[in-house]
# Entry
Amino acid sequence: MNSFNDFIADVELREVHRAGARFTWSNNQELPIRVVLDRVLISGEGESLFPLLGIQTITRLGETENIRSRVFHFEPSCLLQEGFRGWLSEKCPLRSKQNILDHWYEVSYKLRKALRGWGANVEGDT
# Structure
């Protein structure tokens, strides 16, 4: 284990930010053991190529009951829904950042936030 940790330090790998479930494995017992087993490491070069990279852990079916997923999955059929394109255009911020990556980060953040709300409204209507 020490050799593995030394290798990670020597090549300067960093763990990719993980959102979602706190743990990636559980023994599902009455007094469960929960740990993070799955980790994604990235080099500095990889991080500069993919600055918005993140990992989303999703709870497996059967582990929890009646918890609605907060993950919005964009479906191409959304584009066919009346009013969606106009709604989406209203949510896109005008470019206010000089650096295009800063602008894209702002746009992607605001759109993800808006789409989560839109997806919840659509699911609630059906």
Residues 1-59 form one domain. The helical segments are 2-10, 44-49, 84-91, 100-125.
